[in-house]
Amino acid sequence: xNSIVKFFTPTYRQxxxxxxxxxxxxxxxxxxxxxxAIDPVNVYLFNAGSLLxxxxxxxxxxxxxxxxNAGLLTIYAVGTVRALMS
Length: 86
Known about the structure:
Layout: H1 2-8, H2 12-35, H3 41-60, H4 63-85
Helix pairs in contact: 2-3, 3-4
């Protein structure tokens, strides 16, 4: 039983890799949708990407990435609120 749990439990490194690549995909998809003027889905994807990058930055303890992604998440959150109110 223990070997089955160990097989399906990702390592710390695998979790970090999954976080950063999922964040990358979400951010790039948000950029593509922005260039195609598809609102508000682009803002939601930017929020998701920033949140995932922020989680990853906290996990690796990179203060510059934490600052950038906390700022971006704040900016994108304001965009989300504006999109929901219009």
